[in-house]
Amino acid sequence: MEQPTSKEKPDFEESKEKINKVLTQIEDEVPQATPEETPAKQDPTEQNSSDTNKNEKQKKEKKKKEPKKTEVEKLQDEIKKKDKEIKEHQTKFAFLQAELENMRKHYIKQQKMAENRTRMRVITSFTPIIDSFEMAFKNRAALEKSVDAENCQVTNFIKGFEAINNNLKSIFNNYKVTPIEDVNIPFDYKQHEVLMQTINDDLKEDTVIQVVQKGYKMDGEVIRPAKVIISKKTPPPPKPEPKPEPKPEPKEIPDEKPEEGKSDEKGESSLNKEPKVE
User: Fold this and answer.
1) Is 104 helix (H, G, I), strand (E, B) or coil?
2) Within a 13 Å sphere around the CA of 234, how many CA atoms are in the beta-carbon half?
3) pLDDT in tens, 46-69
4) Closest by Cα among 165, 190, 160, 171 to 122
5) Residues 205-262: pLDDT tens digits?
6) How many angstroms separate the first and last alpha carbons of the chain?
7) Is 88 left (phi over 0), alpha (psi -120 to 50) or beta?
8) Alpha helices in the chain, H assignment, sequence order
9) Which neighbouring-strand residues pair with 226?
10) What pTM, to 2 d.p., does this model score?
């Protein structure tokens, strides 16, 4: 048999050639996948690292998308931060300044208290001298009468002691020391010390009648209490004791008849008695 010529080729061969051409064109356009680009199974650690990388990339993208701040805005933010720091430092400085002021006041107060204590000790050491002078001045009149003033110089000695006493009192006045010597006032345990109580119905109870030894104050604070005698009301008479009630007299119990089987006063039993024969 004779083979068909090109002109006599069937239609299906022409269509086959067209299809092959189209396929070759598509293969040329689409790049073939290399073995490196083919997806492969990954470890969980690699997946986590890939996730973190993705998150970082997303954050970077977001930052890129955010509008960039201008230099003026950046300077304003820095100014706000500096203002906050300045306020914090100001509060700390105010706190430290107040604490320092309190410490200074406390130190001054302690110093004044120490000075007052030393003054009190010095002044209280001089109070017995003033007491002895005052006791001597009370007996001045009797002493002058007992001796001859013209031939004796006792009066001159007394005047010298008075001058010394006045000098001591002036020193006390300079230190604002005042005596506690008032009478007919109510007793105050803060500035008085009771030596004795006397009965006096004309005054209120616990009233200062006499000052035996003076007390002293310095700047309103008692440095030595005054020894005093105070009043006391007469105690009420004792209540009469109740009279004892008379004791009741014992009642006489009548004699009972002797029962059978019991003994008489003579000690004989009633059963042993013989009947009387008439």
Assistant:
1) helix
2) 6
3) 556 667 777 777 776 766 666 666
4) 171
5) 889 999 999 999 988 889 999 999 999 888 888 877 777 777 777 766 666 555 555 5
6) 207
7) alpha
8) 11-29, 44-65, 71-138, 140-146, 154-174
9) 192
10) 0.48
